[in-house]
Amino acid sequence: MKRVTLEEVARVAGVSRATASRVVNGASSVDESLRHAVQKAISSTGYLPNIAARSLVTRRADAIGLLLPDERRMDGDPHLASVVSGVTRVVRPLGIHLVLMMTGPGTREQAMSDLRCGRLDGVILVHTDPADPVPGQLIAAGLPVVLAGRPLRPMPITYVDVNQTAGAALAGRRLKSLQCNRIATITGPQDTPAGQDRLAGFLAEVPDAVVVHGDFTRQSGVAAMERLIGCCPDVDGVFIASDLMANGAIPVLHRSGRKVPDDVAIVGFDDSSAALTSEPELTTVRQPISDMAAEMARQLLRQIGEPRTPVTSVVFEPSLVVRDSG
Amino acid sequence: MKRVTLEEVARVAGVSRATASRVVNGASSVDESLRHAVQKAISSTGYLPNIAARSLVTRRADAIGLLLPDERRMDGDPHLASVVSGVTRVVRPLGIHLVLMMTGPGTREQAMSDLRCGRLDGVILVHTDPADPVPGQLIAAGLPVVLAGRPLRPMPITYVDVNQTAGAALAGRRLKSLQCNRIATITGPQDTPAGQDRLAGFLAEVPDAVVVHGDFTRQSGVAAMERLIGCCPDVDGVFIASDLMANGAIPVLHRSGRKVPDDVAIVGFDDSSAALTSEPELTTVRQPISDMAAEMARQLLRQIGEPRTPVTSVVFEPSLVVRDSG
DNA sequence: GATGGGCGTGAGAGCGCTCTCCCAATCCTG
DNA sequence: CAGGATTGGGAGAGCGCTCTCACGCCCATC
User: Fold this and answer.
1) What is the largest CA-CA distance in chain B?
2) Is the peptide bond between A261 and the residue preceding it cis, with omega within 30 degrees of 0?
3) What are the protein's GO molecular function terms (chains A, B) (predicted)?
4) Residue B224 is inside which H or E element, if any?
5) Which residues in window 24-83 of B are less than 7 A from strand D by Cβ?
6) Which domains does chain A have, with CATH numbers?
7) CA-CA to A201 of 20 to 30 Å: which in A193, A280, B204, B284?
8) Which residues in chain B have their CB less than 8 angstroms from residue A94's CB?
């Protein structure tokens, strides 16, 4: 149960600490016989490098942060598990830790400190409030950071996003191909890039669509659909900018005596778990969340590896998942 | 942009490094004037302690791990965000990092290493496979660990759980009070404590209930309900051991021409987001996930603070959330 | 006025690792 | 065979922090 150090390994292997270190770190140019001896010593002693000591000299924490919005905004967000899993996939083989930070009082400041004092090598920012000063501060300080989703105001920052506009267009084409005559959309919040782009992309495809506003929440989906069938009773096709809103909106249609998809076709966006828990299951625009998360991790690691590298943005193409609702 | 060390702070404040360290760590017995000088030096230099250096000597990582099942098992699990948020709430004020680890090839071994080499102070294990050797290894090694949920086989390990039996009884009483005559239950997997206890607790309250087995997944809820109405068409009240299964089961009832709750009352378990995305919204047994997670964190910290402390188990009481389904 | 006990402070020894030298040994080339 | 080039290994200096220990200093005690 006693701690075994490199020193100990070196002693057992009959080499210097430096050579033992070289073997541990896979450095080139160590004689094969010595390397063997060291490896034997490592496994016989059960040696594990002390990360703190290593970190102290390499100035690398081998840990990155994932900054999330608070529980309420995350709740119902189906993506968390996928994001974590995507990031984990690229990060774990490298022995890098994923530190989760949910936004709360002082979190973002803490993340800044962690970054500056070398406790974190970089951060991935999810669902960032446009008014949040943190991204700006981070890039100003030259600290590695990647955004999930295009920032509202253009800024020199690396981000990964899905082509929201193209996704909405996909939905529009689907409704048109279903021969819908009276097409509407329930939008996301218009102060977010995703909300804006999904509306713009849809209108580009269906210019005369009726527009009703929502804010991505289930609740707002209910309200928006009530308004929609009030003002436009003959609607027969709706693109709803999030599955969660669609999930709230469909029962409203049922209650009004309309059948989905027979009377009204519905296309959602996200392909979240809400798409499967809806009745009928949602036809929706899928974003490859897990792959996007993996890409964010890769971008972040690149920045950490070579600072002052030019910012990039990676945009993934969405796809249409056809199920029962439209 | 240059790193400022304690040494630097001490120099600016005109004291020794030791005294500066005392101030940083809030140690007693530092003269008020010196403390002031040091604090001024800290803020003027923008000093942030280097965690790696501290960790090296204190042998504390100030980080704990959250070991999760993989994405597929987590998918649809509505609890992740709540768990993270509960743990974060107690852990962050202490400056302790929450490291997320999703189960995958080698994860559990990695967690063991991290623990042993001092990179992690302790771990919380969620959804542990009964056959998993890791919990046993951890307690054998005397490493701090807390389980989410009672282990299948009794073992000397600290865990936090909800009183599953009592929760199921709550559901049973609810269905009886609704004057249901023909009561059934769709169970969870019978090789898990939760699955077993929910069935046992329900049968204790409704001994003559029809029992159909499921495995907590939505899919299995669909299948189980199909079997149920096949073998027992006059059923008028069902306790479904997870909201996710209930979410799958309700559309089956609708398709068979039965109305919920008028023809068949449904009570779920979990109060997960699936309870709200169901139509009608589910009456369900709520477990205080976030509070339980917070308690897990507290238990873990206690173990870290004083090793070899006796194991404890904390059991929370569930409550019934009455909505529209039963 | 000498003695004992606190208490606050500074010096310095590590914690376990990496990495830069520097030296020795081997190799190639003319 | 001499000379330089190349390579592998060891010594040792830190990385930034905590913490023990010993040293003053001041006050209370006899």
Assistant:
1) 85
2) yes
3) DNA-binding transcription factor activity; transcription cis-regulatory region binding
4) helix B218-231
5) 24-25, 47, 49-50, 53-54, 56-58
6) 6-49 (1.10.260.40), 63-162+290-317 (3.40.50.2300), 164-286 (3.40.50.2300)
7) A280
8) none
